[in-house]
Amino acid sequence: MFDPSRFKPFVARTVLIGLTVAGLAAGAPEQVRAQTAAPIEMVMTDEIATSHWTAKMMDEYAAMIEERSQGRIKPKVFHSGTLYKDKDAVAALGSGAVHMVWPVSVQLESIAPQYGVVNLPFAVTDEAMSKPETAKEVAKLLSGLVADKGIRVMGLMRTADLIFLFKDKEVDSIGDLKGSKVRLTGGRVLQSLMREFGASPVSMPASEMAAALMQGAIDGIYTSAGGWEMVGTNAAKVASLVPGMSLLTYSVLVDDKWMKGLPDDLRQVVETTTNEIVAKQWQRAIDADKKTMDQMIAQGGRLAVAPETERAKFREIATKVNQEYVRRYPEIWKQYQSIVGNKS
């Protein structure tokens, strides 16, 4: 005969277990619930070749983010402009299509002309930017200039002292630039500078530089040692340096809305990891720049350095270009000078 009382303990235990599981799920700590959630995608992009040290550093950074977040953030890195060119990637920040991009800082002038303060000739120095507090304050100033675009500037990274690349011509004086079509990374400040030197600035993607130089579409390129490596000594045999004139930087940009939407612990992972890699990157970039330059010379390239007497003339014209910026944005210039401690 069926006896329901025999099953009461079993039913009670089942109900109790079910309630306990439900209760644990409802009241579980944040980290327990987070572990069961789908990973958060972090799309990162650049237009640099995978062989460039910056691309390798982005891969290193992405791996650190995934490891430190215990897989809760899944970075997806797109190099060589395979997803977006840097300019388009910057415009896509805030749309959800891109979450982080490291463009050269001159790209930001198109959306915030005041950003040109870090692109002014002789304005950025290794001495100032190697100081963590100075670098942090500069990033804060720049971030305020693009905040209305939904962009946060998390720091600046060093690229290199820019050099002129020509097929076989040295740039020893300003006169060597007159009448030349020179490819730039973009930006109003550098364009103004080249025009003052008597050159015609040309903008084009890095991937097209070598072909344009070899075919005569341009006469020269103003770029970094890494850019020389991309172009090769077959296209550009001679590199010319005006020491201290242009220290190019990358801006580490993140979608501010995406950052604010992260759980507190994951936002801290991104912020801490970014600050860490930015802090150690500056010296690494100096070392990498020298290594690349030595390699290019070993491959048959030649480095020419403008003589001291000519550097003063370059600086004189550069000061004129700077004053144009100062007239337009005196407060930003004043704030920047107070941060970096420049006397000029």
Provide a short characterization of the protein structure.
With 344 residues, this protein is of the alpha/beta class.
Textual characterization of the structure:
There is one protein chain. The chain has 344 residues and is an alpha/beta fold. Helix content is 48%, strand content 17%. It has helices at residues 8-27, 30-36, 53-68, 86-92, 126-129, 132-146, 188-196, 209-215, 225-231, 256-261, 264-298, 308-328, 330-340, and strands at residues 40-45, 73-78, 100-101, 151-161, 163-166, 181-184, 200-203, 220-223, 238-241, 247-255, 302-305. It has a six-stranded mixed beta sheet with strand order 7-6-8-5-9-11, with helices on both faces. Helix 3 packs antiparallel against helix 11 (264-298) and helix 7 packs across helix 12 (308-328). The termini are far apart. One of its GO terms (biological process) is transmembrane transport.
Topology:
Elements: H1 8-27, H2 30-36, E1 40-45, H3 53-68, E2 73-78, H4 86-92, E3 100-101, H5 126-129, H6 132-146, E4 151-161, E5 163-166, E6 181-184, H7 188-196, E7 200-203, H8 209-215, E8 220-223, H9 225-231, E9 238-241, E10 247-255, H10 256-261, H11 264-298, E11 302-305, H12 308-328, H13 330-340
Parallel strand pairs: 1-2, 1-3, 6-7, 6-8, 9-11
Antiparallel strand pairs: 3-10, 4-10, 5-8, 5-9
Helix pairs in contact: 3-11, 6-13, 7-12, 9-11, 12-13
Form type: globular
Number of extended strands = 11
Mean pLDDT figure: 88
Backbone structural class? alpha/beta
Sheet-strand content, in percent, reads: 15-25%
| Fraction in helix | 40-55%
Topology as a string of helices (H) and strands (E): HHEHEHEHHEEEHEHEHEEHHEHH
State the end-to-end CA separation.
Answer: 102 Å
Largest sheet report: 6 strands, mixed
The radius of gyration is: 26 Å
Query: What is the count of DSSP helices, taking H or I runs of 4+ residues?
Result: 13
Query: Strands of the largest sheet, in order across it?
Result: 7-6-8-5-9-11
Which blocks of ≥5 consecutive residues have pLDDT under 50?
7-28
